[in-house]
Amino acid sequence: MGEDVARDPECIFCKILEGDIPAYKLFEDEHTFAFMDINPLNDGHALIIPKDHHPNIFDTPTNVLAPLMETTQRIARAIQNSIAPDGINILQANGHGAAQSVFHVHFHVLPRKNGDDAKLNWGLRPGDMDHISDLAQQIRVAIKD
Ligand code: AMP
Ligand code: ZN
């Protein structure tokens, strides 16, 4: 664990940040980390998290939200330029009623297909990991400085 970061040992995203469980990493910088969602709504579904553990948007300091949004834009652009979906939603859930299932604040970059009729509670179904790995590589090469 880094000396200056706040982590929750029970949190699955903190475990990814610690390298204790694997992830299809897309990008990281000093404050943020981006990786593929393993239960994707559509091809290219990605998550952006801060390196510090904050459960939701209410308790995330603005100086953490700012780089989080910067990385979210960077990943959304890379997905647009590589996967080229019909559209992209940026989504962030707070609380069970909003279908938040991991209590480490995160932004979803949700690629959309015309007519996919996606619901906010889309349900978690494991994706094909080889396919997710291929998509991650396509996105990585499209990430700009
Ligand atoms: P939310 O429902 O907004 O809290 O979203 C949490 C997201 O984290 C879901 O879309 C899950 O599929 C995703 N997720 C959970 N565990 C992992 C993991 N180990 N690697 C990648 N994504 C995960
Ligand atoms: Zn965490």
Task: Describe the structure in your own words.
Helix content is 29%, strand content 17%. It has 145 residues and is an alpha+beta fold. The chain has a single domain (2-142), classed as 2-Layer Sandwich (HIT family, subunit A), CATH 3.30.428.10. The protein has a 5-stranded antiparallel sheet with strand order 1-2-3-5-4. β1 and β2 (32-36) form a beta hairpin. α2 crosses α3. The radius of gyration is 14 Å and the shape is globular. The structure holds adenosine monophosphate and zinc ion (ZN).
Q: Specify the overall morphology.
A: globular
The secondary-structure class comes to alpha+beta
The CATH homologous superfamily is named HIT-like
Bound molecules: adenosine monophosphate, zinc ion
Provide the CATH top-level class: Alpha Beta
Q: Please trace the helix and strand order, writing H or E for each element.
A: HEEEHEEH
Q: Can you give the helix content as a percent range?
A: 25-40%
Q: Major sheet: order of its strands?
A: 1-2-3-5-4
Low-confidence stretches: none
CATH third-tier fold name: HIT family, subunit A
How many structurally independent domains? 1
Number-wise, the strands total 5
